[in-house]
Amino acid sequence: MRSGDLILQTMSKVVFFIIILFSIHLFFEGHYRPGGGFVGGLMTSGAIILLLLAYDMETVKKILPFDFKWLIAVGLFISVLTAGGSLLFDVPFFTHVHDYFNLPLLGKTSLHTAALFDLGVFFVVVGVTLTIIQTIGESE
Amino acid sequence: MTEILDIVVLVFILIGAFFSVVAAIGVVRLPDVYTRNHAASKSATLGVMFILMGTFIHFAAEDHTNTRLILAIVFIFLTSPVGGHLINRAAYYTGVKMWDRSVRDDLMERVGNLNVRSADGKNRKTDELKK
């Protein structure tokens, strides 16, 4: 299905990047303020669904040429690795650590392994939402 | 200084609330979907932008500069008219009638022969739908 509306297509090109940037912002500030992997993932999939509405399924498949079911697997894998990595250091499952690092551009930054777990949640949410939308959209 | 800012914030939020009320009255009182959409998309957008601007100034005066509000203003300014355009476009192509006192319809000449899908799922010419 092609809507072919020039105003919608042009505006979604601009708005897509605003939504993606805001979802990344929500993802990274989840530790200190409202946000996190779930909301960030939903917002990212919302941006991709906007592209689906403005263009069509084939165009979005050309932009993101992979099966979204893989994202679910990758996200679960990252989360399990983060949780299971704590077993290597002889501490209980799911123990998180954080420390302060001097990163080259960002300066003193606190890095937490919970962010990696959140990254897994992010991928799972994006994968599940887009798989649902794609499956419903393709069935005639 | 803060007193002046308080007055500025008050004025911004009152203007925003006023435009929102105008939009609501317009949606209730105007005769057809196109004029209603005109009221809703223009006036409500400006109203919400004014309220967000007042909120931004209020928190910026307390050293809590919230750039999300600026982003929200830009976002609403970009997307709300496009939403109004899409609703009007969908209404026109599904054959929603204009107000009976409308005087001209220039788009009709352009798309008069276009096949559109009407509400009952059949493809019809727009000429038939307009009658």
From TrEMBL, chain A:
<feature type="transmembrane region" description="Helical">
    <location>
        <begin position="34"/>
        <end position="56"/>
    </location>
</feature>
<protein>
    <submittedName>
        <fullName>Na(+)/H(+) antiporter subunit B</fullName>
    </submittedName>
</protein>
<dbReference type="InterPro" id="IPR050622">
    <property type="entry name" value="CPA3_antiporter_subunitB"/>
</dbReference>
<feature type="domain" description="Na+/H+ antiporter MnhB subunit-related protein">
    <location>
        <begin position="7"/>
        <end position="131"/>
    </location>
</feature>
<dbReference type="InterPro" id="IPR007182">
    <property type="entry name" value="MnhB"/>
</dbReference>
<feature type="transmembrane region" description="Helical">
    <location>
        <begin position="68"/>
        <end position="89"/>
    </location>
</feature>
<keyword id="KW-0812">Transmembrane</keyword>
<feature type="transmembrane region" description="Helical">
    <location>
        <begin position="7"/>
        <end position="28"/>
    </location>
</feature>
<feature type="transmembrane region" description="Helical">
    <location>
        <begin position="109"/>
        <end position="133"/>
    </location>
</feature>
<comment type="similarity">
    <text>Belongs to the CPA3 antiporters (TC 2.A.63) subunit B family.</text>
</comment>
<keyword id="KW-0472">Membrane</keyword>
<keyword id="KW-1133">Transmembrane helix</keyword>
<keyword id="KW-1003">Cell membrane</keyword>
<dbReference type="GO" id="GO:0005886">
    <property type="term" value="C:plasma membrane"/>
</dbReference>
<dbReference type="Pfam" id="PF04039">
    <property type="entry name" value="MnhB"/>
</dbReference>
From TrEMBL, chain B:
<dbReference type="GO" id="GO:0015385">
    <property type="term" value="F:sodium:proton antiporter activity"/>
</dbReference>
<dbReference type="InterPro" id="IPR005133">
    <property type="entry name" value="PhaG_MnhG_YufB"/>
</dbReference>
<feature type="transmembrane region" description="Helical">
    <location>
        <begin position="6"/>
        <end position="31"/>
    </location>
</feature>
<dbReference type="Pfam" id="PF03334">
    <property type="entry name" value="PhaG_MnhG_YufB"/>
</dbReference>
<protein>
    <submittedName>
        <fullName>Monovalent cation/H(+) antiporter subunit G</fullName>
    </submittedName>
</protein>
<keyword id="KW-0812">Transmembrane</keyword>
<feature type="transmembrane region" description="Helical">
    <location>
        <begin position="43"/>
        <end position="61"/>
    </location>
</feature>
<comment type="similarity">
    <text>Belongs to the CPA3 antiporters (TC 2.A.63) subunit G family.</text>
</comment>
<feature type="transmembrane region" description="Helical">
    <location>
        <begin position="67"/>
        <end position="88"/>
    </location>
</feature>
<dbReference type="GO" id="GO:0016020">
    <property type="term" value="C:membrane"/>
</dbReference>
<keyword id="KW-0472">Membrane</keyword>
<keyword id="KW-0050">Antiport</keyword>
<keyword id="KW-1133">Transmembrane helix</keyword>
<keyword id="KW-0813">Transport</keyword>
